[in-house]
């Protein structure tokens, strides 16, 4: 890695740095090899994830959905250079400032619901919706979707419902007493997503399946 960069997250599959790119601050996301995988297979899988992430980010950009602008994709090094979004994650917002005013929380919920509706309208399935993967811009408070490493394109109602279910589980497990907020997210989603009636209906089935599975252990 080039000097002047600061590691901000070391994950299981990627390292995320803050560093310069063409005279500005950028996020540099590097996927690395996994020692236990066969090198050729590993290179293929890593490349696929980098391409998936860049492709879905670009698809969102074209549709004017607030996501980090992709500056450069270096497939040889498995690195994506993208816009740095100054701000905090929705996770940190909820953890460090619990019990904010209902009105502020409602604004955030609506922004999340709208962003998800717009993303599903262009058939992007995020694949890893958590409150850490939703950032809030310091300047405007706008919600920005990040971390498209598991994203793909699909028109299926089922895939969109599962995407919402993943976020719901993330809310329940990390943020107690946010049922009202999640309901507000779904309400805003319902107003902005094209097939929302069917998707929200399917979400109920997905929840039932999830409950059955946890009862069976
Ligand atoms: N464009 C960005 N602007 C500001 N901060 C970012 C940006 N992208 C990532 N981050 C910060 O880095 C953290 C990790 O990034 P990201 O979620 O993309 O990686 P990851 O979870 O390790 O990846 P993956 O799940 O694809 O293996 C984020 O939670 C966020 O705090
Ligand atoms: Mg992440």
UniProtKB/TrEMBL annotation:
What is the native source organism of this protein?
Answer: Dissophora globulifera
GO BP of this protein: tRNA processing; tRNA threonylcarbamoyladenosine metabolic process
Q: Which residues form the Protein kinase domain?
A: 2-217
Q: Which domain of life is it from?
A: Eukaryota
Record field: catalytic activity = L-threonyl-[protein] + ATP = O-phospho-L-threonyl-[protein] + ADP + H(+); L-seryl-[protein] + ATP = O-phospho-L-seryl-[protein] + ADP + H(+)
**UniProt family annotation:** Belongs to the protein kinase superfamily. BUD32 family.
Q: What class of enzyme is it?
A: transferase
Entries under NCBIfam families matching the protein: arch_bud32 (TIGR03724)
Q: What is its EC number?
A: 2.7.11.1
List, alphabetically, the Gene3D superfamilies matched.
Phosphorylase Kinase, domain 1, Transferase(Phosphotransferase) domain 1
Q: Which UniProt keywords apply?
A: ATP-binding, Hydrolase, Kinase, Nucleotide-binding, Nucleus, Phosphoprotein, Serine/threonine-protein kinase, Transferase, tRNA processing
**Broad class of the protein's primary localization:** nucleus
The entry's function note states: Component of the EKC/KEOPS complex that is required for the formation of a threonylcarbamoyl group on adenosine at position 37 (t(6)A37) in tRNAs that read codons beginning with adenine. The complex is probably involved in the transfer of the threonylcarbamoyl moiety of threonylcarbamoyl-AMP (TC-AMP) to the N6 group of A37. BUD32 has ATPase activity in the context of the EKC/KEOPS complex and likely plays a supporting role to the catalytic subunit KAE1. The EKC/KEOPS complex also promotes both telomere uncapping and telomere elongation.
Where found in the cell? Nucleus
Task: List, alphabetically, the GO terms of the cellular component aspect.
Answer: cytosol; EKC/KEOPS complex; nucleus
Query: Can you name this protein?
Result: non-specific serine/threonine protein kinase
Q: Which GO terms describe its molecular function?
A: ATP binding; hydrolase activity; protein serine/threonine kinase activity
For this protein, the record's InterPro entries field holds: Bud32 (IPR022495), Kinase-like_dom_sf (IPR011009), Prot_kinase_dom (IPR000719), Tyr_kinase_AS (IPR008266)
């Amino acid at each position: 890695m080039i000097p002047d960069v600061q590691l901000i997250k070391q994950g299981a599959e990627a390292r995320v740095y803050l560093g310069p790119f063409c005279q500005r601050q950028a996020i540099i996301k590097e996927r690395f090899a996994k020692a236990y995988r066969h090198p050729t297979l590993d290179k293929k899988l890593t490349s696929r994830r980098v391409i998936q992430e860049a492709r879905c980010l670009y698809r969102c950009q074209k549709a004017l959905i607030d996501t980090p602008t992709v500056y450069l994709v270096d497939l040889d090094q498995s690195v994506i250079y993208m816009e740095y979004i100054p701000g905090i994650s929705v996770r940190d917002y909820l953890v460090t400032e619990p019990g904010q005013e209902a009105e502020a929380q409602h604004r955030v919920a609506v922004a999340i619901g709208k962003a998800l509706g717009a993303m599903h309208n262009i058939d992007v399935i995020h694949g890893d919706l958590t409150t850490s993967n939703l950032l809030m811009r310091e300047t405007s408070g706008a919600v920005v979707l990040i971390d498209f490493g598991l994203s793909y394109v699909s028109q299926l109602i089922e895939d969109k419902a599962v995407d919402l279910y993943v976020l719901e589980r993330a809310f329940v497990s990390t943020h107690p007493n946010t049922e009202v907020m999640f309901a507000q997210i779904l309400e805003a989603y319902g107003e902005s997503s094209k097939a929302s009636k069917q998707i929200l209906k399917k979400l109920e089935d997905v929840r039932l399946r999830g409950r059955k599975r946890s009862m069976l252990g």
